[in-house]
Amino acid sequence: MSLLIVGTIAFDKIHANNHITGKILGGSATYIGIASYHLGATPNIISVVGADFPNKYFEILKNHNFNLSGVEIIKNEKTFFWEGKYLSDMNQRETLKTELNSLSKFNPKVPKQFCSPKIVMLGNLDPRVQLGVLDQLNTKPSFTITDTMNFWIENTPNKLKEVIKKTDLLIINDEETKQYSNNNSLIQAGKYILTQGPKYLIIKKGENGALIMSKNKKFFVPALPIENVVDPTGAGDSFAGGLIGYLNKVNKFDFESLKKGMIYGSAIASITVEGFGVENISNMSNESLKTRINDFINLIKIDF
Amino acid sequence: MSLLIVGTIAFDKIHANNHITGKILGGSATYIGIASYHLGATPNIISVVGADFPNKYFEILKNHNFNLSGVEIIKNEKTFFWEGKYLSDMNQRETLKTELNSLSKFNPKVPKQFCSPKIVMLGNLDPRVQLGVLDQLNTKPSFTITDTMNFWIENTPNKLKEVIKKTDLLIINDEETKQYSNNNSLIQAGKYILTQGPKYLIIKKGENGALIMSKNKKFFVPALPIENVVDPTGAGDSFAGGLIGYLNKVNKFDFESLKKGMIYGSAIASITVEGFGVENISNMSNESLKTRINDFINLIKIDF
């Protein structure tokens, strides 16, 4: 099985819990890839960084079996940087600074050996970049997962539509679902999206869990109630990474497999948010993941 | 088994879905009682109305096996009236008018034959009224359930504390949980409440479901995703009513029974919000409840 992940590798600076981090390792490809690694994946990464990206961070990624041959290093540019502040209830955040830097010049080149992936994960990026990757593939992937956000819905709706047409599973949040479909009923909005290409839609609700819909089925996964949320950054990407890591492992893409994948994704996301940046998931043991999965099963299991 | 419900019987006027109702039947005791009836309860009601309360509404309540001997009719007073407007996304509402009327004179008298209930449900009311009912009981109930709201947390904290001390299961929403415990971490806030009397806490999250906590266990029930929410009024009370109706039926109050009760409560609440006022739950068939329970099981069931 081969798993291709397109996304950002970035510096983040996080204000949360009365603490301000330095410039730490972040980015969607980073979280997605690390989460998938914990389920046995060796993710092939398409991304871009600047000349300032330190070797120690490359080492962290390599230690999680990242194949980095598709990561471009742009000279005379800096790495994409995001600085954000979480408010006291942790559900809201303010962006303090966004410096696109090398990301603004991202013109993905897919290495030959990556051109026939089984699974493609298109992290939240300019839809033109997402399409640029799909266009370079030699074979149609078995399963394409797409993440996006309100910015692209507003600013590049037509290109995004093209991406979504080629997507098997779209992962977005509740507000984006309503916005994309221009419908205030979440379920009607979700049904509309299922007529636009994707067989499956996962609607993320942050600390309120996630709902997956197909044409005829629905399944809901709560978020694990966490006592001390330290830093929510990367929760959504960890969720997606755990999910695709599971799909990659079982090599099945039916509704039941997606349900189980969501449990893995949610469990890993719950570990991510208990530490700053990647510190917790990068060091996560198999044992702690198993324990977390058990907590999850107890949270949702009922004999009826 | 005897079930005692203390709560309001009211007139509601609802603005939702581009429609304004007339003065329709509402109130917490109404919704709780009707929901419990569908699980076989014959609820004993403590409430108050004015002289303007029409016979046709008494008939609706009697048709749902309400014992109304504890409902006081205050002459020269009107029935409690609430008028509210739901905003387009249905998760927010504005109160347009609150006329306490007879409710401001509510001094509950518990009829003799109601004084040894197995289950007591204290609907959202002035804690002094809730205490007034508990003080009149001859025996300690097997299970006491309390609902309350931010207004009482702010304005009568000491009386509320007394009520909560005598409560087995407290049902409040997420904001109220944090407010009562003065803690922004929902789980820490919940744990605090479990040191104040209740063995169980249910944290309602509206369209995002509900979490039950005991000292050592947690279980989460999503809300059923509804395509057309017509009127959310009474959803929380229908949930509580379905839950206590189930507990009343099985005569058990352990964690597993509460979990199942939450499924019944959520299923009934999902039927309530698909119509204005009580029109949908008052006419609910056993068949439609069964179908709804099945939808629910499909929404949360996973083989792991």
Features:
homodimer, about 300 residues, alpha/beta, UDP-N-acetylmuramoyl-L-alanine:D-glutamate ligase, nine-stranded mixed beta sheet, five-stranded mixed beta sheet, globular
Question: What does it look like?
Answer:
The structure is a homodimer of 304-residue chains. Chain A has helices at residues 28-37, 55-63, 127-135, 150-155, 157-165, 174-181, 186-193, 235-250, 255-272, 279-282, 286-300, and strands spanning 3-6, 10-16, 19-20, 24-26, 44-50, 67-74, 81-86, 93-99, 119-122, 143-147, 169-173, 200-204, 210-213, 218-221. Chain A is an alpha/beta fold. Chain A has a single domain (3-300), classed as 3-Layer(aba) Sandwich (UDP-N-acetylmuramoyl-L-alanine:D-glutamate ligase), CATH 3.40.1190. In chain A, the strands form two sheets. In chain A, strands 6-5-1-9-10-11-12-13-14 form a nine-stranded mixed β-sheet, with helices on both faces. In chain A, strands 2, 3, 4, 7 and 8 form a five-stranded mixed β-sheet that branches. In chain A, strand 2 and strand 3 form a beta hairpin. The first copy, chain A, is globular and about 60 Å long. The model of chain A has no long low-confidence stretch (mean pLDDT 96). Chains A and B meet through helix 7, strand 14, helix 9 and helix 11 of A and helix 7, strand 14, helix 9 and helix 11 of B.
